[in-house]
Amino acid sequence: MKIRTTLRIAAAAAASLLSVSAMANDKAVVSAAFKSVFYLPVYFAEEHGYFKDEGLDVRIDVASSSTNALAAVISKSADFSLHGPEWTAISFGRGAPVKVVGGTLNRLGVWLTCKPAFAFDGFKSLKGATIATGAMPTTSSSAFIKLVKNAGLDPKRDVNLLEVPLGNEIGPLSSGQADCAVLYEPGASQAQAQGFKVVSAFSREIGPYTFSAISTRQDISPQVSQKLVSGIDRALKTIRKDPAAAVASGLKLFPNLDPAVVRASVQRLIDDGVFADSVAVPEQALKDALQTQIDLGNLDRIPADGKWLDLGYADSIAGKAY
């Protein structure tokens, strides 16, 4: 009798362990190019438990560059990475087993900020002005040059481009060396806090542009990939519906930044449409982004092999409500 009882207890314990194992969450490591307000959606999803709701435990690492973020995926120290899709296209073309499975930023997150007294009336009004830009090749400067050309100006003759290391563009504006500066966030909001004025959002000037995407390896389970993509999709849609919650998340993520700058930065990304509506990647937005990188010399060509894109699931949940 005792033996039968012991066996029943053992069997029950084994069944319980199997049940717990069956319910255990999948795990994933996400490598972000930088700890930046641009990647707020993945932090927002983690903070609000969206990944756990999908059955996924996520750890977010910061790689310090786009190439390092993707390298972490290729080396299998991370499962997903967040950065521009061009780096995935470049690595895929070189034989790396990587692909893009969704998007997070479908507008260009760059702004033109000028001195208060500067009379900006479209890009044609920049003729003769000195503009601080990040040293080429960089997306922000390339986009600025495109807009200057579209206005009928010659960027070599009609404007004075003052190239500085990326992240230092406010310096010449503050010192009086430049009339305007081409800035990412939180730079634009920091400049505004110093009394300068934001006169143009490139997201509105250029339109849809895949600025950041979700990349992974070809061998990552579709189940795990879909869980991560779903969590980020829910975050993007919630950020749109509840900007105050997005700002609160940004304040937690960047406790050492001026709270007013964080609030302005997050709100600007929402208002100017930089945070995507969903994880879907519009075809033209992706083409425009890749063509910019081809023009910069970062990318030779768009890969002919479609295996570098796996967007079916992201597209299928674009209209999903949470």
From TrEMBL:
Location of this chain's protein in the cell: Periplasm
Membrane spanning residue stretches: none
Coiled-coil residues: none
Stored Gene3D superfamilies: Periplasmic binding protein-like II
Cellular component terms (Gene Ontology): periplasmic space
UniProtKB keywords: Signal
Record domain SsuA/THI5-like: where: 40-246
Main location: periplasm
InterPro entries in UniProt: SsuA/THI5
Keyword Transport: no
Pfam family, one: NMT1
Signal sequence coordinates: 1-24
Family: Belongs to the bacterial solute-binding protein SsuA/TauA family.
UniProt protein name: SsuA/THI5-like domain-containing protein
Organism: Achromobacter animicus
